[in-house]
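User: Could you write out the 3D structure of this protein bound to adenosine-5'-triphosphate? I've included everything you need below.
Assistant: Certainly. Input first, then the structure.
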Amino acid sequence: MEQPQIVIRDLEVRYGPLHAVRGLSLTVGRGEVFGMLGPNGAGKSSTLACITGLVSPGAGQVTVAGHDVGAAPATVKALLGVQLQRSTLFAELTTLELVGLYAALYDRYPSRGEALALLRRFGLGEKAGVRPRKLSGGQQQRLALALALVNDPQVVLLDEPTSALDPQARRAVWREVRRLRDEGRTVLLTTHHMDEAEELCDRVAIIDEGRLLALGAPAELVARHAPPLSPREAGRRSPNLEDVFLALTGRTLSVTETIADEDAAWLAGAA
Ligand SMILES: Nc1ncnc2c1ncn2[C@@H]1O[C@H](COP(=O)(O)OP(=O)(O)OP(=O)(O)O)[C@@H](O)[C@H]1O
Ligand SMILES: [Mg+2]
């Protein structure tokens, strides 16, 4: 790795009795697309929240470009672009006005043309005068991505950037993420999608129950952890990150099989 851009050391997050992140350490290199992969409740969003300073860790340290998040929150904020998992966009503003508002939060005042160009980059040029609630789920997600870039950030945090998107729109987001990297930015994203992690990420951290299970390039993790496929399966597919997760936890990553017992009971109508 060249220069480290994000360093997370021995991170602990507790919400009352719930121990969400348990001694997580990892380093994201400058210019990397880095993926945090893990099931619901693994602690991915909590880790991102510590990088932004939204959540204060119970223990451990996070630095961005060498700046400690706890000690220099304003410096770190200026370096970061953030797409939250659930962004509540102000209902009464148009998408164009939102770009202006978000930019102003960073003390930036783009011209109308610059704001429009940002919307166009995400296929939202025609929606400049529209309020977010009138956008489709996928368009809202793209708007959130655009808003994450208003301050021309060095480091972009994307929490499940493709979760509500159809396959074509997912690929468009992948293209944009690669473009962010080509522009020299560092991207840290979370995902449940194995194929997304394999396709997009230079390196991946597999996280479960607040702990790091494995870290490396997708192909490296597969080579190191995936057990050999049966001859029959080997004829049909190659080993993948799903096999890695299964080998490391005994569980599949697919959402319904890995959610907390309480959630499973609720989904099954038993609660
Ligand atoms: N603000 C909060 N207050 C209390 N508990 C929380 C809070 N945020 C998260 N948690 C709990 O912490 C654990 C980790 O949650 P987190 O959102 O970090 O997981 P995640 O990996 O992002 O999951 P998902 O894939 O569902 O987004 C979960 O058990 C969750 O219920
Ligand atoms: Mg999350």
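The mean pLDDT is 89.
User: Perfect, thank you.
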